[in-house]
Design brief:
- The chain has about 350 residues and is an alpha/beta fold.
- The chain has a single domain, classed as 2-enoyl-CoA Hydratase, Chain A, domain 1, CATH 3.90.226.10.
- Helices cover about 45% and strands about 10% of the residues.
- It is built from 16 helices and 9 strands.
- The strands form 2 sheets. A 6-stranded mixed beta sheet has the order 1-2-3-5-7-9, with helices on both faces. It has a 3-stranded parallel beta sheet with strand order 4-6-8.
- It catalyses: 3-hydroxy-2-methylpropanoyl-CoA + H2O = 3-hydroxy-2-methylpropanoate + CoA + H(+).
Length: about 350
């Protein structure tokens, strides 16, 4: 039945709606879901009766917890080779969203992580609520932040993006706004009214959509990152992950020490590759160029043991005790890190000209 489909499409007035419909799996993205979203966006782009698109998640827990990493775990275990094809389509979708010619309204209510950031934070009208929990937690499973995450985080003020990319820290509405991952704060109890307004007759052009978002918006509750800027900017300018950890431990700030302890639980290989990726993204002009590099990094991660082990520890066995290989940062070689920038065997994504 239609309501059982993993992505629901609908129209209300001149607004088209996408609903990620796997609430029991926190609306985690599968390859067929990515294709469905892309096909719907392509059709609505050429439909003069559609003024805007709204994406949201079914259930009350969040928009999307990311890609379905259980599928990726099975792929790494069996060597089936399906993950690169999924990433190719997912990353192309992220670029389509970023370049979409009509307002793309993302309701980032509840959990928004990994691939969930990819289908929301590249949109033109990004709305967070008091329930928003936004993160790019890839280093916890042996990956480098992807779906354009290194592009987005590299544009955050100071070293905030480096901090978030390495630690995978979850942030709320105010910090998402500060880091440029969202545009408006709307209390969750006003989302229904916002949806109704977007379906109303006053929505005739893109400017109307943005005005409605501003009308229902208000000031977000205070965040954490702004107060931590001094030690974050000081510690994360270091030249290596090892030095970052040393600075965090020596800063005298309890929150910095906590960050250091978090980093020591992450994949050493992923940490080093992520630091390179974020700093390269900061120097790279376009999202397309950065996502091309992220595709290389994701494909490379398939050749390292940490990806399978990280997913096992986080979502399969849930013991939260990954056995990284290598175990120490000092054991990760320059050659290991360089592999994350090398073209994959199946060829590059080729988004950038």
């Amino acid at each position: 039945m239609a309501h059982d489909e993993p992505v629901l499409t609908a129209r209300a007035g001149r607004t088209a709606h996408l609903t990620l419909n796997r609430p029991r799996a926190l609306n985690a993205l599968t390859h067929p879901m990515v294709r469905t979203i892309d096909e719907a966006l392509a059709a609505w782009e050429g439909d003069d009766d559609v003024t805007a698109v709204v994406i949201s998640g079914a259930g009350d827990r969040g928009l999307c917890a990311g890609g379905d990493i259980r599928v990726i775990h099975e792929d790494t275990r069996t060597g089936a080779g399906a993950s690169p094809a999924f990433w190719r389509d997912e990353y192309r979708l992220n670029v389509r969203i970023a370049r979409y010619p009509k307002p793309y309204v993302a309701l980032m209510d509840g959990i928004v992580m990994g691939g969930g950031v990819g289908v929301s934070a590249h949109g033109s009208v990004r709305i967070v609520t008091e329930r928003s929990a936004v993160a790019m937690p890839e280093t916890a499973i042996g990956l480098v932040p992807d779906v354009g995450g290194t592009y987005l985080l590299s544009r955050a003020p100071g070293e905030l993006g480096t901090h978030l990319a390495l630690t995978g820290q979850t942030i709320g509405a105010a910090d998402a706004l500060l880091c440029g991952l969202a545009d408006h704060f709307v209390p969750s109890d006003r989302l229904g009214d916002l949806r109704a307004a977007l379906a109303g007759p006053e929505v005739r052009e893109a400017a109307d959509v943005r005005e409605i978002a501003r009308r229902y918006g208000t000031t977000a509750p205070e965040g954490r990152l702004d107060a931590d800027r001094e030690w974050i900017d000081s510690c994360y300018t270091a030249g290596s992950v090892e030095e970052i950890i040393d600075r965090l431990r020596g800063s005298g700030e309890p929150a910095a020490k906590d960050a250091a302890e978090t980093l020591l639980t992450r994949s050493p290989t992923a940490l080093k590759a992520t630091l390179v990726a974020v700093r390269r993204a900061r120097r790279t002009a376009t999202l397309e160029q950065v996502i091309d590099q992220e595709y290389r990094a994701s494909c490379a991660a398939l050749t390292f043991p940490d990806l399978q082990e990280g997913i096992r520890a986080q979502v399969i066995d849930k013991d939260r005790r990954p056995r990284w290989s290598p175990r120490e940062l000092t054991e990760v070689t320059d050659a290991d890190v360089a592999r994350f920038s090398a073209p994959p065997p199946g060829g590059d994504l080729g988004l950038a000209p």
